[in-house]
Amino acid sequence: MKTGKSLIARCTVALLALAAAVAMAAEPIQLDLGNWTPSTHHVAVNALEPWKKLVEDKTRNRVKVNIHHGAVLGASRATLSDVKGGAYHVGLMISSYYYDTPLFKLTIGELPFALAGPKEGAKIMTEFVDRYAADAFDSIGVKNMGVFTSDPYLLMSSKPIRRLEDMRNKKARVPGKAWVQITKDWGAVPLSMQLEESYTALERGTLDVMQTTPGSAIGFRYYEPAPYVTLLNAPTVVGGMIMNKAFYDALPPDLKKQFDQELNPALLQMITNSYDRTTSEALGKMREAFKAKGRGEIIELSNEERLKFVRPTAPEWAAWVQEAKKRGYPGDEMMAAFKAIMSKHGLTAPF
Questions:
Q1: Residue 170, SS3 per DSSP
Q2: Contact in structure between 222 and 216 (CB atoms under 8 Å)
């Protein structure tokens, strides 16, 4: 009897080992990641490519990540529809591109002169999303992998912007819907344009001023046609990584857990770290390029001049609350909570 039980036990172990071996030998799950930035962009180099290796190593090659750089699978404004529709499985989403969806809630973090940098911004927005926008992703049919914030934006121009008056009648690329009125208040002409299209527009003169982050300025080489860089330090854009829901739902339970608890947080931390360290590196590279060409400058505004840019943006904070209320959200409560979370992390709202 004991021999029989022992034999059954040995057979069970052998079968389990065989099943594990078959699973390991099975074709890996193919995960397509669409990246609309170039392969040289700091997010691609410092986060997406290392994450590919991390996923493949940690899952023991059960998941193979195929990264498609340079918008070959879809443009930046199409990320949400592309990921939701299954054109690819994982994508980089910018919340301001989806102002008219439930992702509007995230645009509170893009209010002018709100967030100071990627590390504090990521903590503040993660806490805010957990409290007020956790349902936003489910409601539009995608899986939230986590949110991040960029480094603060610069003004990049073909002619120097040293004071607010220098913006008058300039054609300026706006980073989001809320910045249309701000740009008008600055005396400029707002143009909505994807990051991928802006280099050519600057080169041809159909765009005079580009608002973007230092890292993107290097990745897209905007400093070539726009060699005058004004350190405005606003806004800080809120982004996120999203996953196709059907793809996620089809993952084995252990892989779901691994993505949720380890792989997704690792990716967002890589992105945050990349934005955090890229600012000084990017400014240094631009200074070198300007010196080599004998044209270009990093411009620091005086406190007095910077305040001239800040003051006209106050109405946008109140406008965000009113817009939230129109959509049926508790706008006053959300704004109070956002400011309280900012304070908790050492930041003070400007208005």
A1: coil
A2: yes
Are the beta carbons of 226 and 158 closer than 8 angstroms? yes
Instruction: Residue 290: count other Cβ atoms within 10 Å of its Cβ.
Output: 17
Residues sharing a CB contact under 8 Å with residue 203, sequence separation 6 or more, in sequence order:
224, 225
Is residue 130 one of the residues assigned to a domain?
yes
DSSP letter assigned to residue 21? H
Q: How many domains does the chain have?
A: 2
In 14-95, where do the E strands start and end? 29-34, 63-68, 90-94
How many secondary structure helices (H) and strands (E) does the chain include?
A: 15, 11
CB 338 within 8 A of CB 132: no
Q: Which residues pair with 147 in a beta bridge?
A: 240
| 193 close to 201: Cβ distance less than 8 angstroms | yes
| Confidence at residue 175, expressed as pLDDT on a 0 to 100 scale | 75
* Domain assignment of residue 255, given as a range: 27-149+238-278
Cα–Cα distance, 95 to 84 (Å, whole number)? 15
* 32's tokens: 């397509």
pLDDT in tens, 117-176: 999 999 999 999 999 999 999 999 999 999 999 989 999 999 999 999 999 999 999 877
Task: Choose one of 227, 257, 278: the last residue of a domain.
Answer: 278
